[in-house]
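cron nightly-structures :: item 1 of 1
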Amino acid sequence: ITNFKSLEDVTVTLEPVTVLIGRSGSGKTNFVQAIRWLRDCIFGRDAQLALQAFGNDWEKIICATAKQPFQLSFSITFDAPGFAEDFTYDLHFQAANQQHPHAGLSLFEEKLALGKDLLFHHRQGKWVQPPPLIQPPPPGQLMLGAITGLQEATIAYLVLTNGIGCYSFPDTVLSPSQGISQSSFTGLKDDGTNFVSTFSGIISDLRSWKNLQEIAASLRRLKRNLKNIDIDQPARQNIAVTLEVEKLRLVLNLAQESEGFRRLLACLLAIYQEPPKQTVIFDEPEKGIYIAGLAILAEEFQNYAERGRGQIILTTHSPEFLDHFNPEQIRVVEMKGYATQIGPISSDQVEMIREKFLRPGELLTVDLARLD
């Protein structure tokens, strides 16, 4: 990522489970926002539409320390189901006025490759390598998602749009007062506002009924008297939580549960939704969750990757939560000279964790994490 907010020039290798840690203001949320902006830009095939989340103001996402010639660039390597080789997608925007880049950017270059096979490449409105079609479309805008007859490009588009969930849940998560989301992505929305329909999709399909059982089992570890969770009948407009008290059942509306319970359920819905997301990103998912719930959540994240459902990326400020992850899964985020740097933990800290002289959570308290 080049020139998105504080990400002046950042390259990150991501694991099946990756945890980003660092001081406040170091750039963790900027990294999450960069992936969300790229996803939204590709989905709508319009950078200006993706900019709406930032008040249609380029100045809010352009790096303040960017150098000329000014470009906002993304290069992402990813896999996709059914393909033995990795995809590589490059997208570059350039300021029309290099003296005043905040005035706006326009598409400069786009390229998609599968392994060593270049599928298409255009620069400044001209084909450098057109797609293998007799009549390729004119390259005046984003081509990913607009090329019919090239299945590889369609798969790449789906992975980078509907295949990515970027979740940052508000304090009112999973409550009627949360409001209505306008996003047209499939699956659980970034703010969780369509949680009822997402939950209904899980319980309405017998093929995903096991997911509901696993969600209930995880919640039961936090709340022992939980019997089950269900949709209220016949309205089917709210999630009902059933508790068992002295062999009698008490049915409550989900809105009556604590924020921590609702937030844990929101995270579980994100990873158990059908179809699953290929990459699920959480910005500080531990907020408001009781310490015992953090162990449950970390275990669910690890299982998500180990079972091959998808990849987990998250940011955290919680030492207790970080204790549940391996040092190889942790990436340090630092701010140096107004620019964010992201990389593995220093080798000496990794060794101290392996030798039990240091816990992962102490990288946030006792011996602050350092870049390798």
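cron nightly-structures :: done
The first strand starts at residue 17 and ends at 21.
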